[in-house]
Design a protein that fits this description.
This protein has 7 helices and 5 strands. It is of the alpha/beta class. The longest helix is centred in the N-terminal third of the chain and has 18 residues. The protein is elongated and about 60 Å long.
């Protein structure tokens, strides 16, 4: 948490409102939003590693959870846990500052909403990295896309845990 200004006294409600508007602008200019995406079907140390690595780049870490429908479309099988359970599991980690469920097929919705400085993708999000690069170019955005290495992918991968 960083201070954007020193404490101030105000003579009227209008002065406070004006200062709040200025503070919102100042905070948006200074904050580094990082966006992450994932299924997070069976939360494991690999997910914790991924989110903590992304968090190191951010003032605010925003994590988007894939819907049940999108997960089935991308992975050709339904997730083990519902999107609500997966969101709750990620929220319980207390790594991401904001957690949303995807809600539609347009990742640009989240990019337009949060205007992230960085998007951190996990090592195996190949299909998404190609799409996101194209979308960023289309909207002329300078968002940096980083790929986070895996933490022992042969050991920490959701499919490994599901098979148990």
């Amino acid at each position: 948490i960083k201070k954007i200004r020193d404490n101030m006294k105000f003579d009227s409600l209008e002065e406070i409102k004006e200062q709040i508007k200025k503070d919102v602008i100042a905070s948006k200019e200074k904050s580094i939003n990082v966006l992450t995406f994932g299924t997070f079907d069976v939360t494991h140390p690999g997910h914790i590693f991924y989110l903590n690595a992304a968090k190191m780049y951010s003032d605010t870490l925003i994590t988007i959870i894939g819907t049940d429908k999108n997960v089935e479309k991308i992975k050709w099988k339904p997730p083990l846990h519902t999107q609500e359970k997966r969101r709750t599991d990620i929220e319980k980690l207390k790594i991401a500052d904001i957690v949303h469920i995807w809600s539609d097929n347009n990742p640009m919705k989240w990019i337009e909403m949060y205007k992230p400085s960085i998007i951190c993708l996990w090592y195996d999000q190949k299909w998404f990295s190609e799409r996101i690069a194209h979308e960023l170019k289309k909207y002329n955005l300078t968002t940096l896309v980083l790929r986070i290495d895996s933490l022992e992918p042969d050991k920490y991968k959701s499919s490994k845990f599901k098979n148990r």
